[in-house]
Amino acid sequence: MTTALQNKRGFTLIEVLVAICILSISMLAILEAVVITMEHNLNNVSRDESVRIAEAKMNELRNTTFSSLASGSSNVTRNFRNFTRTFNVQWTINNLSANSVAIVVMVTWTHRGVQHIHSVTSMVSTDV
Question: What is the pLDDT of residue 83?
């Protein structure tokens, strides 16, 4: 019996293959988690960029003379993290009274076939 125990010194080929298989499956799971994390990160960066675009457009409209305010739209292309995304910016001027309007700025973008929207609303009055 002691001779049988002395001959068991290493791993068998099957044990090594099972260990490599378990390690490979674990690495694939980790890789999937990294891909999901990067996807969420890119979506958050796009959302942050849409907030900046809407804020800049709203500031531009609020600094426009009251009589010159008009609805419109444009496209804005931004590059971040080696990725290019086009945002559609639409602004609408709604009359509230003779001397005040509501400005609505909507920024839309598409990510993996899903359309996302960020909107900002402000009221502007003229000095009477």
Answer: 84
